[in-house]
Amino acid sequence: MFDLVYLSFGVAAWGIVGYKSLAWFRDRGNTDLGLACVMTGGVATVFLFSAPSLYRAFDRLVGVANLAMVFLYSSVVVFAAGALVLLLRWTAGEGSAGRARARKRARAAVGTVAVLWAVAITGFAVGRPDAVEHPRDFSTAYTDSPGVMLFLVLYLAIFGSSLAALGTLCPRYAARLGGTHLARGLRVLAAGCWLGLLYCACKVIGFVLSWTGHPAPWLSNGVAPLSASVAAILVLAGFALPAAGPRVAAWRRLRRLSPLWRTVTAQTPEITMERSAWPLRWPFADLEWRANRQMAEIRDVQRGIRRHVESDAVDIARERARAVALDDRQLAAVAEAAALRRGLENRAVGHVPAHGADSVVVADGSDQAELTAEYEHLALVADVYRSPLIETVLTELRQRSAMARN
């Protein structure tokens, strides 16, 4: 059971590492992204070595019992060192002086962590008294060994200090970023850090209870690993959100816009780029680009049909929408959908009204605070495009047009 859970999370985590590494290779100057790759790799390695079968297989391969624990905790220390460097970069200030100050402090921090961890590994090497594997109860098996205790205490000190600092700073930066996916990722990352501190506290309390003659293996070997696992998942989610969030949003937009896009571009396939794409393309590739293209091509069609839409079509649609007590957002969507359908209908039969509309775009990016608002507006247009209310407006426009011709 433990093998399946930890190995599954480990594979998923390394998938995130690979994805973020590809992004970093395209943007080598983004030091924060590189640090995120290193920190995510540390968490991914922890999951792999936490699987008891892999833990024991590694020790059999190297011939040293519990050496896998050194690699597991070393991966945690790599995460902690990356977190410290990230913190120093965030707090060093702007400009070349700030960057130089961050580099100097980062070298000092990494050097200090390296020295402390070398001391910790030395403690492990001289304090491990037997050759029995302890993948699940390592911290309680050696509470009477000073060397191993030195190893564990230094590990918890390095890890806990980095978690506390990162958990404190992430919400501050998230508050500056508003409702962005990066802000959400920082908040989730902070939650993982604080839960990780619970793991550290459980371990320390477990040590104290063992030294005082009241061992609590349920705390050190039960609650602590569980909280650490959930914390690691939250940390990975925090790192993944800034990249995954926009793509999930783009997929949702694409799913909502695609029916409208297919309908309005059916008569003018020459303006589209989508149909000429490689048919065997991965369906989740270039989601944001495809959503942007579909929105732009819908707008292209709207600009091309203005002269086919009666000048009062939008006003009529607004009046009918107000009559059924729609809010302003729904009203704008109904007006635009009605004008779009009417323009396509008239163009299909070659009808050009005497007085065409100046525009059939009721809300666009120039009127919206954010581009996402325009996406949402067009998605609402897609939602009401075939609604009975639009049919009512079109029926009235057809009748008025027929009367004018007679």
Walkthrough of the structure:
Helix content is 77%, strand content 0%. The protein is mainly alpha-helical. The chain is elongated. Mean pLDDT is 84; it is low at 275-280 and 365-369.
Briefly, what is this?
The chain has 406 residues and is mainly α. Helices cover 77% and strands 0% of the residues.
Structure characteristics:
406 residues; mainly alpha; 77% helix; elongated
Chain-wise SSE layout:
Blueprint: H1 2-26, H2 31-50, H3 52-62, H4 67-91, H5 95-127, H6 138-141, H7 146-176, H8 181-211, H9 217-264, H10 287-304, H11 313-323, H12 328-349, H13 371-384, H14 388-405
Helix pairs in contact: 1-2, 1-9, 2-4, 2-9, 4-5, 4-7, 5-7, 7-8, 8-9, 9-10, 9-13, 11-12, 11-14, 12-13, 12-14
